Amino acid sequence: MPRLSLTDLVDVVSKAGSPKATKVKQIKNRQDYSPATDFYKPLREKLVSIHQADQSKSDLPTILDGITDLKKIKTYAILVEGYRKWWGTKKFGWFSPPTTIYSHAGLDVSVNPELGLSFNGVDHLIKLYLKDDEVNKAKMDLITSLMEHCLREKSKQGTIMSVLDVRGSKLYVLSTNATAQKAIIDAELAYVAALWPNV
Questions:
Q1: How many domains does the chain have?
Q2: Residues 95-152: tens digit of each pLDDT
Q3: E strands within the chain?
Q4: Structural domain that includes position 47
Q5: CA distances for 45 relative to 38, 42, 115, 134, 158, angstroms
Q6: Residue 165 in 3-state DSSP?
Q7: Is residue 1 pLDDT above 80, yes or no?
Q8: Contact 113/99 with Cβ under 8 angstroms?
Q9: Strands 107-111 and 100-104
Q10: Which end of the chain is more exposed for a tag (fewer CB within 10 A), N or C?
Q11: Region of 19 on the Ramachandran plot (φ > 0 left; ψ -120 to 50 alpha; else beta)
């Protein structure tokens, strides 16, 4: 069964017409996932380890330690600064975030927030949005709505579903009708499934 990431889903939904079909084709024909070619994997893992070890904001620059690829160094520096600004004066507690797979129309979507952070007395499940794309509430609502649908029963009461635009230092929380958004997601996945054999 083909598998999409949450970012793939956002990319497809945010396009229309030929660009949408082109995006589906790109997703179908890309190489199988490999940790070695996952551009952001070291950064995600180091952010998680910093919070798991209850390290401080001053430890964020260590994310760049051992990175030799010049493109990664430049990009990671921007992301580390964005995360530092968002961190601000918050005091975090770590918990392991639940993950799952959402299946519809013969497609799987990985629903996998990287961070489980408690701050200001509230648990937050946080999906990191790292790409250098336009970020808007409509895109983020798709992610938080699917997280709400899939992860609510796996989460403590009161847990907030959220997406962090790391570059923009902004946390987007669920603020829409998750049921209506799920209908949109299902329709988009049905479209992708219908197109998949033909691209």
A1: 1
A2: 999 999 999 999 999 999 999 999 999 999 999 999 998 899 989 999 999 999 999 9
A3: 3-4, 93-94, 100-104, 107-111, 115-119, 122-129, 160-165, 170-173
A4: 3-198
A5: 11, 5, 10, 24, 26
A6: strand
A7: no
A8: yes
A9: antiparallel
A10: N
A11: alpha
